Amino acid sequence: MYADGSSVDLTNAVTWTSSDTTIATVSAQDLVQSLALGNATISAADTVTGTASLNIVTAFTWGATGSNGTSASVSSADPPTLVCL
Known about the structure:
Radius of gyration: 18 Å
Largest sheet: 4 strands, antiparallel
C-alpha cells in the first residue's frame, strides 16, 4: 500500500519461487500447493521483493463440548494444510 492509501496488484508483475519444492511449489497460475510436511519460504521478486514463510502441518480435528451440552468441532483439510506464519 502506498502512503496515499492506494494499492496496486503486483501478482503478475513478479516471479514467485519456493525455497523447497519438495515441500511446496508455485504453479504457473501463481498458486502455492503443499506437497509434504515441513517449512518453505515463498518469495516474490522483480518489480518488488517479499517473502512469506509457510509451515505445512498435518490435518487435524479439534472439538469441544460446552457445559450446556452443545459441541463444536473444527477440521483442517487432508492432505497437509498450508499455514502462513
